[in-house]
Amino acid sequence: MPEFSVSRSTTVDAPSDRVHGLVDDFRQWQQWSPWEGLDPALERRYIGPECGVGARYHWSGNRKAGEGEMEIVESTPSRVAVDLQFLKPFKARNLTTFDLEQVGGGHTRVVWTMSGRRGALMSLAGRLFFDRSIGKDFDRGLASLRAAAESR
To answer: Residue 107's pLDDT band (boundaries 50, 70, 90)?
Structure first.
């Protein structure tokens, strides 16, 4: 199965611990995730600890939002890794990471990456459509993450 990886980055005018708090707690994702507005009636369920390793988030919504679950599998001051499992409208399992690097003067460089494996047919469709669409979503999400972190 072919592997894929999609990444986008931004620099936030806020310390890395502030940015970390927004990605390490799924309840905070409502402030910045590009997918939160896809279904106003989205059902959310938080499982386990509030943040950090073991925190889980299950969502179920309309056709646009789909259904899935995320679990934080790694949380350090410089990285949050999430096991992402889509259940509907298609099944897939990917790793999503947020790498945080403190750069001069209280700024944080954030790199958001999704990686995984795809079947041959999905690999072609992914390169043509999915990767571009996810990249745009990541750009929107990072702009919202930046705004949320900088407004605190």
So the answer is: very high
- C-beta of residue 145 within 8 angstroms of C-beta of residue 32: yes
Mean pLDDT value of segment 43-70? 96
Tokens of 14: 């806020």
Helices (H), 6-130: 16-23, 120-125
**In one letter, which amino acid is 122?**
M
Who contacts 11 (Cβ-Cβ below 8 Å, separation ≥6)? 103, 107, 108, 109, 110
pLDDT in tens, 63-94: 889 999 999 999 999 999 999 999 998 888 99
Predicted pLDDT at 127: 54
CATH 1.20.1640.10 fits 3-151, yes or no: no
Domain residue spans of the chain: 3-151
Q: Which is nearest to 6 in space by CA: 94, 122, 70, 105?
A: 94
Burial 73-107 (b: 16+ CB within 10 A, else e): eebeeeebbbebeeeeeeeeebebbbebeeeeeee
Q: Taking the model in full, what pTM does it have?
A: 0.90
